[in-house]
Specification:
The chain is mostly helical and 787 residues long. Helix content is 74%, strand content 0%.
Length: 787
């Protein structure tokens, strides 16, 4: 059955193949018939059709070739890109592998080194154990051998501590030498308490245990030997505490009071303490850097070695911070150096070196620090070294054009250029209240960043001085020369007070002593005028703190004034008014109120008017205007009598430019306050003409014309109408005065002759003047004709 089925399946496959061949032949024959039916035979085609067909085939072949070439080029590019990307990936992978290998090798080396150290330590410990085990097994019974074994163990254990032991031995040698020198003085002086009985070598660098100030003072009094090491140690602690307290307490307002106290301490002995305290305080509060720099500048004038030591330590701090990339410490050091350059304690060359170092390899932080440094000391560098500052700004411009730094830092540089364009306004080198040293007295130190710097750290540590008393005496003499006679006066006063106390204790007659003290108190006079200064301060603060004139008047009347002090109130009121930028009616109303209340104030303001007009040339224009308006208000409100104007004499010889301005403002304010009509009525009052003769003079035509012209020029010509009429009628009045003299017959002949000659002379004067004028006209006409 199986064979039959296989044979049948083979026959079926042959039949299918035959059918497929016959069907394919039929399809080809049918396709050929269709083509022939459409196009006919090739023999029937014309030559042109054949050519066109061949061209079409050629074009098609060319297109196929071009497409094939394009595909090949595209594939070639894709292959190259794949290869390139794969190469980059390979390189990236290789880099990462190399980095990882480096990290691994570094870790391996570190682990290997640690393993080696552990192995060596393990080997040493094993060797020690073996040696000790061998020794113990051998069982040395001899004491000499056991001691030898102990010595060998100690030597082996002390090998890794040789450096430390060597340093400790050196310190012990130095302390031993000092102890030997002062052994005799130590035996004589003994201090009570456990803190003083302890050995000096156990006190340490930090100063030992804290001792309260009262206890420290008591202990210093109990010491008899002032040259002992214990007493020196106590004075050292007291010096350190006082210097730290003064430096921490200093600011811009009290620096002038702190400086004498600082010079009262031994700055030669404690120069290291002073430098360390200044640096720590400046690091804690950089906003007070200019104050610390001013303090150092004053100390540098008297002790240049202190200023140089501080500058060296700050430069060393800057170099360490720059190497460690400690930005906070670097900013503090740079700011301190900048203000020392401003105070001219440090030379400007160190500033230029610092800027060159910061801008050599610019980073965001270094450029930021350099910009802050130039803001602090750029003003003085522009005066001392303009070319160097120009070079620094050119470097800033180059960094800005490179554009490799952050945008924020670029904006900082642009802001610095704007500050330079404004000539560093708002960034002065030294504030006025901190400009305490004259340029001639200042000593400038030149230190380079490339030099090797010795910070002298040993000055911060206590060391006994065998010549302690002599050095203290020398500094006391130096302190007297620096501070003057103040310290001597204080010492003398203290000694005098001590002597008086002793005498009072010894004397038995208390009544006689009291009488003597009363007599001494009666003889004392206050030449400093402290009470007067306090009174003026109270009046000034009351005037400035009041809301209106009524409150100020109420408060000022409450002040208890001694007889004769009323004048101070008027003077302070006038001073406050003159100090204002513009005149305030507040002061005029307050002065009016006091004049109305008490006639004493009215008289005092009259004296102030006379005094101010006599010194009017000393006042500025603004002060002059305010004072004139103040008195105009008092005159306009009748708080001040008008007869004070009698002191003003309005002539060309008796006035100055300042007095004319004062009179102008005074009368203009009166005309605005009263009006021109009322002012004219006041000035023409018959009862006050005696007081106004000096303002409207009638003694001389020249002075009369000057007064008329003055008031006309200031716009008040209306008040001079009477004076103008008087000037017009002056010749007629003169003639009227002369006629009765000429017509009198009762007089003697000599008198009549003299009067006739005078009258004829007076009549001949106008005739001569008229004839001379006619002659001049004729000469002038002749000249014109000739011309």
């Amino acid at each position: 059955m199986g064979r039959k089925n296989s044979s049948e399946s083979g026959d079926d496959s042959k039949d299918r193949r035959d059918k497929h061949r016959h069907s394919s032949k039929r399809d080809t024959e049918s396709n050929g018939d269709r083509w022939h039916s459409r196009h006919g035979d090739e023999s029937e085609l014309s030559d042109s059709d054949k050519k066109n067909r061949s061209r079409r085939h050629e074009r098609r072949d060319e297109k196929d070739v071009r497409g094939r070439d394009r595909r090949q080029e595209k594939e070639h590019r894709e292959r190259k890109e794949r290869v390139r990307s794969s190469d980059e990936d390979d390189r990236r992978v290789e880099r990462e592998r190399g980095r990882r290998d480096k990290v691994k090798t570094h870790q391996r080396e570190r682990l290997d080194s640690e393993d080696e150290d552990d192995r060596e330590g393990h080997k040493r410990s094993e060797q020690r154990r073996e040696r000790t085990g061998d020794d113990e097994r051998r069982g040395y019974r001899n004491e000499h051998d056991r001691r030898h074994l102990k010595d060998r163990r100690g030597k082996e254990e002390g090998e890794h501590r040789e450096d430390r032991v060597f340093q400790e031995k050196e310190k012990e040698k130095e302390e031993g030498e000092v102890r030997e020198d002062n052994s005799k003085s130590q035996k004589q002086s003994t201090l009570q308490g456990s803190s003083l009985n302890a050995d000096v070598s156990n006190w340490g660098r930090s100063g030992g245990v804290y001792i309260p100030p009262f206890k420290l003072a008591r202990m210093m009094k109990e010491v008899q030997d002032k040259s002992s090491i214990e007493y020196q140690r106590l004075t050292w602690d007291a010096l350190r505490k006082s210097i730290n307290g003064l430096v921490n307490k200093v600011n811009a307002t009290n620096i002038k009071n702190i400086i004498p106290e600082l010079f009262g301490e031994n700055l030669i002995r404690g120069r290291g303490l002073f430098c360390r305290s200044c640096m720590k305080s400046q690091m804690a509060s950089p906003g007070f850097t200019d104050v610390f720099a001013a303090l150092v500048a004053v100390v540098n004038t008297k002790f240049p070695e202190v200023g140089e030591l501080l500058l060296r330590r700050i430069v060393l701090q800057f170099k360490r911070a720059y190497k460690r990339n400690d930005k906070h410490q670097l900013l503090a050091a740079v700011k301190f150096i900048a203000h020392l350059v401003n105070q001219q304690v440090a030379h400007e060359i160190i500033a230029l070196e610092l800027l060159a170092l910061m801008l050599e390899n610019p980073t965001d932080d270094s450029v930021e620090v350099a910009v802050g440094f130039v803001k602090e000391c750029g003003s003085i560098l522009q005066d001392l070294s303009p070319k160097g500052l120009h070079g620094i700004f050119e470097r800033f411009r180059g960094i800005l054009h490179e554009g490799e730094i952050d945008k924020r830092v670029q904006f900082l540089i642009e802001g610095l250029f704007a500050i330079r364009k404004a000539k560093f306004q708002g960034h002065p080198a030294v504030r006025p209240e901190l400009d305490l040293v004259e340029q001639e007295d200042q000593l400038t130190h030149e230190i380079s960043l490339e030099e090797k710097i010795d910070p002298e750290i040993t000055l911060d540590i206590f060391k006994p001085d065998p010549q302690f008393l002599e050095s203290e005496k020398r500094y006391e003499e130096l302190k007297k020369t620096i501070l003057g006679e103040e310290s001597e006066d204080e010492a003398g006063s203290d000694a005098g007070s001590d002597d008086e106390d002793e005498d009072e204790d010894d004397d038995e007659d208390d009544d006689e002593d009291d009488d003597e003290e009363d007599e001494q108190q009666m003889k004392i006079k206050d030449e400093t005028e402290t009470n007067l200064v306090n009174l003026r301060r109270t009046i000034y603060l009351t005037i400035m703190s009041s809301i209106d004139f009524e409150e100020a008047g109420h408060k000022l009347l409450k002040i208890k004034l001694e007889p004769g002090q009323e004048m101070e109130l008027c003077i302070m009121l006038l001073e406050c008014c003159s100090q204002e930028r513009t005149y305030l009616r507040y002061y005029g109303l307050l002065g009016q109120r006091f004049c109305m209340i008490n006639k004493v104030h009215q008289e005092n303001f009259e004296k102030c008017f006379v005094q101010q007009y006599s010194m009017i040339h000393r006042l500025e224009t603004n002060k002059l205007r305010n004072v004139a308006k103040f008195f105009a208000h008092l005159l306009g409100t009748d708080a001040l009598p008008w007869h004070v104007l009698a002191y003003i004499r309005l002539t060309e010889e008796d006035t100055t430019s300042s007095s004319r301005i004062f009179i102008k403002i005074l009368f203009q304010e009166l005309s605005e306050h009263l009006g021109i009509r009322l002012l004219n009525e006041r000035l023409t009052d018959s009862s006050m003409q005696d007081s106004f003769e000096s303002i409207f003079p009638r003694d001389n035509p020249k002075n009369t014309r000057f007064s008329i012209n003055f008031f006309t020029s200031i716009g008040l010509g209306g008040i001079t109408e009477n004076l103008r009429e008087y000037l017009k009628n002056m010749p007629r009045l003169i003639m009227q005065q002369q006629k009765p003299v000429s017509e009198s017959d009762d007089e003697s002949e000599s008198g009549s002759g003299s009067s006739g000659s005078d009258s004829s002379g007076s009549e001949s004067e106008p005739e001569q003047s008229s004839s001379s004028e006619s002659e001049r006209d004729e000469r002038h006409k002749k000249r014109r004709r000739r011309g």
